[in-house]
Amino acid sequence: MLKGLLKIFLGDKSSSDLKEIQPVVDDILLAEKSLLHLSADELRLKSTDLRARINDHIADLQGEINDLKIEAANMPESDLDAKEAVFERIDTLELSINEALEVVLVEILPEAFALVKETAKRFTAEGEIEVTALQFDKDIAAKREMVRVEGEKAFWSNTWKAAGSDVTWEMVHYDVQLVGGVALHRGSVAEMHTGEGKTLVATLPVFLNALTGRGVHLVTVNDYLAKRDSEWMGPLYEFHGLTVDCIDKHQPNSESRREAYKCDITFGTNNEFGFDYLRDNMAKNPDMLVQRRHHYAIVDEVDSVLIDEARTPLIISGPTPKGDEQEFESLKPMVVKLIQVQQKAVQGFLTEAKKLLTDGLSKEESEAAGLALYRAFRGLPKSKPIIKFLSNEGMRQRMLKVESFYLADNQREMHKADEELFFVIDEKQNQIELSEKGILYLTQGMEDDAFFTMPDIATELVALDNLDSNDEEKLAMKQEVMQDYGVKSARIHSMNQLLKAYTLFEKDIEYVIMENKVKIVDEQTGRIMDGRRYSDGLHQAIEAKENVKIEAATQTYATVTLQNFFRMYHKLAGMTGTAETEAGEFWDIYKLDVKVIPTNRPIARDDREDLVYKTKREKYNAAIEQIAELSKSGRPVLVGTTTVEVSELLSRMLDRQGLDHQVLNAKRHQQEAEVVTRAGQAGTITIATNMAGRGTDIKLTKEVKEAGGLAIIGTERHDSRRVDRQLRGRAGRQGDPGSSQFYASLEDDLMRLFGSDRVAKMMDRMGHQDGEVIQHKMISKSIERAQTKVEENNFGIRKRLLEYDDVMNAQREVIYKLRRNALYGDRIRTDIANMFFELVEGNVDATHESKDYENFRLAMLSNLGMEAPVLEKEFLAAKTDDLVYLCYSKSEESYRSKIEDLASRAHPVIQRVHDDESNDFKSILVPFSDGLKTIQVSADIDDSVATKAVSVMKSLEKQVVLAVIDLHWKEHLRAMDDLRNNVQHARHEQKDPLLIYKFESYELFKQMVQKVNAEVASFLMKCTIPSNAGDQPLRQAKKVEAAPLGKTSKAGVDNIAQQNFAARDSMISPGQAGRPQAPPRPKPVDPIRSEKKVQPNSPCPCGSGKKFKKCHG
């Protein structure tokens, strides 16, 4: 009511957003009129003019950057401070260019949007557009039929291939789509209903921002949409000379993918964009990089990508030491026996409750009955007999009353409720814990009664310290205690994961078995999530349960969350049909404002109040009756389900009724496009998970519209309101008629966990009998409140995941910046100088305060390979800062002279190879050694001769820095993984795990940086060319190919059965560049196209007059 009053007096956000954008739309419509009389060539010249205006606007800033880069390149190596100041100025100017671009884009926006709309209008009206043939016209004509060249003229057809099928362009932007385009350009989320043409809307801001030449990324939720949209919308951009490609058409790290990123507009899936970022930061050579700076991105189905997909980080990982060692197989028989005795005990508690729950109960009997019922629920909450019994009148209220008693006073009395159980399950918190009774059952007959009991490690270590043994014996005994603690900790963790696998994760609901592998089903879309694995050993536990091969554990090599990846873009926007309910999260995490775009035509869909039954059986029977009735009336019916199991159950029920239907779920996702195409035909019944087929519209015939349009039947409320809205939105596109009806029961997961207490009380008070239904606005609101609780819980989990990754992201930015500087080499000398300074500073700080000259001298010798630059008397008398600067200056001076000496020694050897006409080598390997390690540096012979081996020294610095950083970063990531797992135990001590994680991770990172500094400085200061290097046989350096760095995937997936997991998990065993240990991934299969095939000796279609093999062949 309050919201309604505020809307009356203050207006709503949607209206104010529309009022703000309307003047811009008016300017676009005015600019459109000025284009009506332009020829096609003049239309294309308009886009050239817009690009020129953009370049002119930033010309001064870009010119200053170019001058500064030349200045930095000509600066002497000794002037590092001035060089660093130049680079900082360049970085500042790059940011200024981004700001300047936004100013000029606002100025030309009306003209650019009008230009796109006019182009779309001409493709629709003219069928074929004639223009003067330019080179890019000829290039396209050589590859595709849609453009043909005749003499000096090129003809652009309005029919072309998209996703393997012919499409004819028949779309022109509505005014409301111009509103959506402005919102997207401003970096907002545009919420547009299903069928409102989000793909067409995106052409407006994509074209405008692509004119800058800085790259626009259009991110889709799957590779089918990425490929389809790039081919469908591509000609609209290409007509104006912009380049378009899709990264999902090309192999990772390939030259073709690199070229795709160079295009003005690049389509692709969110995972591929993210993994390419990680691969780039594992590259060994600048030529292996594929991505440019992240400038502007539009995310299609933004709620699915930035919210659902963002629950789990992107990870590249490889083998971990002893990763194939696990106890799941050995513990499995124990778990099976434990579950059997638990099932027997739970059945006994349920039987006891049923016997006691009769009329005329005494207070003691009532309490005993309630306790027995609560124990049964705590023992196996997903047991179908328990769920069914709790749906009876008054039973859930009785159980909830008992639960509130035992939860009071911080669960002080809970041990009494759990003492008769072998293990207890907290379904809401997704936790399982072995009870004392369970441990006694498992250890009976064992010699070690503490086999499943964690030792009190603090007490045992104190007891060992009090022994009379010598230090060596004490150390050995402490190591034995720590080892025992580690073994038991891993064992109990494995046991708990197995119990979760058996009691909380159901086949064909949370996962399916395909190709003898456990594959996760996406709760939101119902699609198979290839390559993804549950975290913390849970996936291995499920593999053990299902008797499939148990994969080895892995460690992280590179990782980033989607939140932090997309926050790297200068400007981010998104579009979807369901974003308003998640507006708070979009703003809190991404600073994205949600703007609701009005529909082109009023929505005619009839959204009915939910029908709530007591049991699932009653609900499904009622739904089947309604489906049969609707189908017979000639209306297509889309039946939405939340799991594979339910879709298969409904399919069997429809078979028994003799009703023809089609099914789309995780087991049949390959037929998605075909199923969605048929779903709008008269009388067709389609069963699909709630978000299956997202991104494709169900189109209706005139006959179907007259019959009432598409009927939506939801068989269960999802735990997210926007997923239900997505299902409803399937009907009523572009003013089509339609209806939506949701069926729910008190046994549904959402109702059972969060929403059924009030509804159950209401149904009991109203005296509802089995088979009767309740339908009221208040009931629907109660369900939506339950969904809000789940959404808040899920947001908390995603935000917690981001808070942990923010810690990692700060460290990641430092390391990746160092790597990028090393790859390009322009700033590497400054970074090395900083390493020297920090190393010297650490040595001085550690020894000067205690006046320990001897250790200072040894540190300088071991770390920097040089004698202390001051005598002991000077060391004691000097100030700390002065001493640091003096030692750093001496180390820099020593290093520069060493580099010059090495270059002078390497140059004659390389010169001799260069002058030898019998050698046709392009590059050469130069060995360097510090006496412990040897590194082979690849150097270009011509470049080395021209620079007198200075380029060899730069290659040495680059290779050493990259090798050391990669080694220690990988180890650091493993330590961070372990830390994140270990800090979770802090909850038991009433401490915040995140706070401890921040403090400890800072110390770990500081130690890692110190190690990197020490190893880089030590090797560079001590290395030399072996004295016999000139006598060794010459070897040409192998070219480093830009091979994929390994397979990639995402970590575990959160769903209603796994709410507490912020996951990481296994992917690959990446080998060295160019030598993958795993077999290469098969090339993706593109849709079959029937493009023209030009014979080698035929004339080239570009109109050049040459043979095809001599031109574009």
Compute the separation of the termini in Å. 69 Å
Shape: flat
Portion of residues within helices: 40-55%
The DSSP helix count reads 37
How are the strands of the largest sheet arranged?
8-9-7-10-18-6-19
Instruction: Indicate the structural class.
Output: alpha/beta
User: Mean pLDDT, rounded to whole units?
Assistant: 82
- Quote the beta fraction: 5-15%
**DSSP strand tally:** 29
| Spans of at least 5 consecutive residues with low confidence | 1041-1047, 1052-1092
Q: Radius of gyration in whole Å, from Cα? A: 34 Å
Main beta-sheet strand count, sense and barrel state = 7 strands, parallel
What does this structure look like?
The chain is α/β, with parallel strands linked by helices. It contains 37 helices and 29 strands. The chain has a seven-stranded parallel sheet, sandwiched between helices. β25, α28 (721-728) and β26 (737-745) form a beta-alpha-beta unit. It is flat. The model is unreliable at 1041-1047 and 1052-1092 (pLDDT under 50).
Descriptive key words:
7-stranded parallel beta sheet; 37 helices
Task: Compile the SSE list and pairings.
Elements: H1 2-10, H2 13-33, H3 40-57, H4 59-74, H5 80-126, E1 128-132, H6 135-141, E2 147-150, E3 153-157, E4 159-162, E5 165-168, H7 175-185, E6 189-191, H8 198-210, E7 216-220, H9 223-238, E8 244-246, H10 255-262, E9 265-269, H11 270-280, E10 296-300, H12 302-308, E11 314-319, H13 328-356, H14 363-379, H15 384-390, H16 395-411, H17 414-418, E12 423-426, E13 431-434, H18 436-443, H19 457-465, H20 471-503, E14 511-514, E15 517-521, E16 528-529, H21 538-545, E17 554-560, H22 562-566, E18 571-576, H23 583-590, E19 594-596, E20 604-607, E21 611-613, H24 616-632, E22 637-641, H25 644-656, E23 662-664, H26 672-678, E24 685-689, H27 702-707, E25 710-714, H28 721-728, E26 737-745, H29 749-765, H30 777-824, H31 828-848, H32 853-864, H33 872-877, H34 880-915, E27 923-929, E28 934-940, H35 941-946, H36 950-983, H37 993-1022, E29 1049-1050
Parallel strand pairs: 6-18, 6-19, 7-9, 7-10, 8-9, 10-18, 20-26, 21-26, 22-24, 22-25, 23-24, 25-26
Antiparallel strand pairs: 1-3, 2-3, 4-5, 11-17, 11-29, 12-13, 14-15, 15-16, 27-28
Helix pairs in contact: 2-5, 2-7, 3-5, 4-5, 5-8, 7-8, 8-9, 13-14, 13-20, 14-16, 19-20, 20-21, 29-30, 30-36, 30-37, 31-32, 31-34, 31-37, 36-37
